[in-house]
Amino acid sequence: MSEPVNIRQIAPGTKIALVDGALAEVVSNPADGVWVFARYLSSPGDPSRVGGEEMIFAQDIVEIRE
Amino acid sequence: MATTRIQGYRPGLVDVATGQISREIFVNDEIYQDELERVFARAWLFVGHESQIPSPGDFFVSSMGEESVILCRDRVGKVHVFLNSCRHRGMKVCRYDEGNAAVLTCPYHGWSYSTDGRLVGVPYFREAYHSTLDRSAWGLVEVAQLCLYKSSVWATWDPAAPPFLEYLGDFLPYIDLTLDAWDGSDGGTEILCGIQKWRVPCNWKFPAENFSGDSYHNISHRSVDLVGIGPSGSGRRDMPELNMARKLHIAFPERGHQTTSYLLPKEAAPPPAYQHSSVVSDYFRECEEARRKKQGDWGRMIALVGEVFPNTAFLARQPRTLAAWHPRGAHETEIWRCFLVDKSAPAEVKDFLRDYYIRYSGPGGMTEQDDMENWNYAHAASRGTIARRYPYSYEQGMGTAVDNYEWEGFRVPGTVCDLTQAKSSEHNLRNLYRRWAEFMEAESWDELTIWRRQRQAEAAE
Predict the structure, then answer these.
(1) Domain covering B169-452 in this structure, CATH number
(2) What pLDDT digit, counting tens, does each position of B391-414 carry?
(3) Which of B100, B212, B287, B293 sits most deeply, having the most CB atoms within 10 A of its CB?
(4) What are the structural domain ranges in chain B?
(5) CA-based nearest distance B379→chain A, Å
């Protein structure tokens, strides 16, 4: 299991890897420690999400990719 | 004394005909629970001031009855008031006093709401809910009605309540005397610094009746008068124009609002005030001259204190403040007090007023300390088995109020009791409790909108 990511410190533009294998880029961060807004760059499980913007739950973020 | 609703509040507990009110309505826990439902869940309540949330995303956590509410401005600038309780498990969504946020996120399970109240974030929405949760049905609970009036924010949980302006009726111009700028122009005020919040071990109706117009208790502020905290160095205030005015208790029986106000004689020039600072003194003289010119005969009216039913009080002049008496049980009240200043006033005026206002009001203010001591010990000494058998007396000025009061060509709106010679009256206090009893007995707003029935009857004649 990977180390928990402190999402409050993630700046817009940061790329994040998600638990389902998707990659997304942070658009904005409300700094509530629970959510970030991000745009999908890739989504192997559901390619229709690519380019779409969603709120990403902290526990779905497994890694920061810069 | 029995407290069942069947027996009735008016004949059993609030007897305005004899001027006697049972202590039970202050100390009885069962009555208090009834009050939350029948008064606080139905009446219009003061929530805050727009100057507390100037920008999109700004929020301020306020209170309506015992409920925590979020006053916020959404991303397109619209003002909302929401119950501060997550729809999932009830957790307080917002635990800060104020701030700015893109979303309001519950710290318990992470449900997240946009500033217009929509549920926008649900953890594991796809996985755990299989994308079937109807997010549109699970937004924050919003008040039934909201009204922004001269930057003050009011709300009610009851969709059947009359609109706010109808709720206030002819009392409206009296609260304008607090909400307008000092020169009488519409609104233009802001909250000075923050809100003072503190708790007093008394029922919320003790401060409510005090600010409805209890001038009989002035003796308990005598020490403050002796200290001379007023803005010209003597007394509590310097409003010498009051010595030439008619002192009036003005009540609106069908609505439950009341004020102590002063009516100046025609052509009375404003006497000097705020003599400790020439900048402040000049500012107020110029504003007062402008106000009287702008408002004509109404400019002769000066409000002192008043109460919007049930729990919002104002002091119009020295100090200029709004207060809410938030119930926290039958035996405790959380007092929130804010001070209003003209947005455009010079910094020296704001600084001067800040110092004077906190010297006067709030938990550290000398005058309010006296009040708190009275309310605290009056409540405590009324709780006992023996004490609660004996009603309070509200007999001052019974039978002396008139509906068509006029002085020097000015007809005063409301039911008026002239205190100029009488010194004191409990006319306004009886008005507060009459309305309170009506709320406690009425099953619907149809019964409470007495003025509508009167209007219909007049139209039928």
Answers:
(1) 3.90.380.10
(2) 999 999 999 999 999 999 999 999
(3) B212
(4) 45-145, 169-452
(5) 43
